[in-house]
Specification:
alpha+beta; 51% helix
Amino acid sequence: MQSDIEALEKVVEWLDGLTLGHVTDRLHKYVDNVRQQLPLPTNVSEAAEMGFIFLEAREFVNVCTAYKGAETPALIAKLRKVLKGSWTLSQESSKNSDARNTMFELSLAAELKLRGIDVELGEPDLLITLPEGQYVVECKRPFKEMSVRANVKGAESQLRANLKPGQHGVIAVSLSRIVNPGNAMLGNL
């Protein structure tokens, strides 16, 4: 567990060096929670919440690993967004979901970048350059099942407005919020 705490502390140092982050933001709360780890969860809801804290903390580590030393204004702007919002998934609402929606973009970009793929952040959400061409990616993280279709249609409209000749459009959809709002373990839905 020590290596996880050290990795998180490196993310905190990185964000501090970028003059981002504050002791009250989500990441600092994650670090405090990982350090304390006790008491152990007493029910499924608490265990699920602790699991999401660890998963979201890992996303921050991946973003730091992928982008440390390659900071851009677009990255800084997105990092500012992801540090806000509710610190636990179960407290997220449609009014404060922008932080996790933006983290979906950053997390996807980081995963691709860590695999050696050229990814730019901005508007559109991601621009991926491969030898076969460029892919414009619009990321959506619907809050409710009934909004999936509207999110996909919105992404399609954004792509149609932004695609340049020779580019390909991709819609990346995270159904994580719909599958689990943060209070259950997948085996106990």
